[in-house]
Amino acid sequence: MKAVNIFTLAFAISLTAFTSCTNSKSGEEGQSAVAARKTEKEMVRVMPLAKEEIARSVEYSSTLEPFEEVHLASSSPGRIEAINVEIGDNVKKGQTLVLMNGTQLMQSKIQLKNLEADMARLDTLKLSGSIAQQQYDQLSAQYEVAKANYEFLSENTVLTAPFSGVVSGKYFEAGEMYSGSPVAAVGKAAILSIVQIDQLKTIVSVSEKYFPYIKKGMEAKVKLDVYPETEFTGKILRIYPVIKSESHSFDIEVSVANKGNTLRPGMFSRISIDLDKTEAILLPALAVLKMQGSNNRYLFVEENGIAKRVEVTIGKRFDDKIEVISDELKAGDKVIVTGQARLVDGMAVEVVN
């Protein structure tokens, strides 16, 4: 039993010594390989660093809305005599769309005509001094009330289009009773809905840090997924004056021209606004490397035949170039743009441009 233990102990000591020797040899070989690699000269190409002027911009998602929308309804309940349009019909400003029952309007018109005749007679009597001023004032007041009532009933018996647009909703048919109650589809009292779509708008919520840069009349670029190859033009129409405390943002209203009615309310859009011009470092995207297993980015700069690794932050992309941000970079630095994938920090390089 003792002999077996002595043999096992001797074997374990021998194995430990062999492993230690092997690890030491491997470590020395690894260090030698790294040192040798640093002394090898890699062939690289470089480009001098220079700042370029770019437009600093912000982009937000939004939904297109009609430039104007109205839910047409009579102020007084009553029977609908006629509806002259259907959903999707184009209408012109001032066009008659709905006719309500005209009984009250007719009665009001007759009353107004009678008062007009009475007023004409009183005017003659007043000139001759045959009527008291009080009697004249009383009839004059009745006439003004009747006139206002007639105008009110006229507006609410014959409903016309307040602007040129498209009928987007129809909630009653001719012969039905309009009660004045809200319609579930729009949450308001309505017989018809009309939208203006030859021009659209969108409300965009912008971070408060950009408030000093946003100006009324600034141009905005509008892109839609449904038309990926087309860029539309918008303009900042209004800037809301209040910063929302819960989101630290403010709203702007952007108008979008819709020539040919290509766009429709409800479409998803992306609004891009150029805030100002600034200088930035732009490099070919291939010059910037990414560390495996992280989102850290870096590049190499050639200094006196040595590759120096520089950590950078990625900014905006411009076609095949990207903006890089780093306090270590300065104008005139020679950034390695070819051969950088084989480099390590401190490695000898030879520029072959």
Structural descriptors:
Helix Hairpins, Elongation Factor Tu (Ef-tu), domain 3, alpha+beta, single chain, four-stranded antiparallel β-sheet, 3 helices, 16-stranded mixed β-sheet, conserved putative lor/sdh protein from methanococcus maripaludis s2 fold
Description:
The chain is α+β, with helices and mostly antiparallel strands and 353 residues long. Among the domains are: 39-53 and 279-353, conserved putative lor/sdh protein from methanococcus maripaludis s2 fold, CATH 2.40.420; 59-66 and 197-278, Beta Barrel (Elongation Factor Tu (Ef-tu), domain 3), CATH 2.40.30.170; 97-160, Helix Hairpins, CATH 1.10.287. Helix content is 25%, strand content 42%. It has three helices and 20 strands. It has a 16-stranded mixed β-sheet that branches. Strands 7-6-4-9 form a four-stranded antiparallel β-sheet. Helix 2 packs antiparallel against helix 3. The radius of gyration is 40 Å and the shape is elongated. Residues 1-13 and 15-22 have low confidence and may be disordered.
Question: What does this entry show, briefly?
Answer:
The protein has 353 residues and is of the alpha+beta class. The protein has helices spanning 2-39, 103-128, 133-157; strands spanning 42-48, 51-63, 65-72, 78-83, 90-91, 96-100, 158-160, 165-170, 177-178, 192-207, 219-224, 227-239, 249-257, 268-284, 289-290, 297-303, 306-318, 321-325, 334-338, 349-351. Among the domains are: 39-53 and 279-353, conserved putative lor/sdh protein from methanococcus maripaludis s2 fold; 59-66 and 197-278, Efflux pump adaptor protein, beta barrel domain (Elongation Factor Tu (Ef-tu), domain 3), CATH 2.40.30.170; 97-160, Helix Hairpins, CATH 1.10.287.
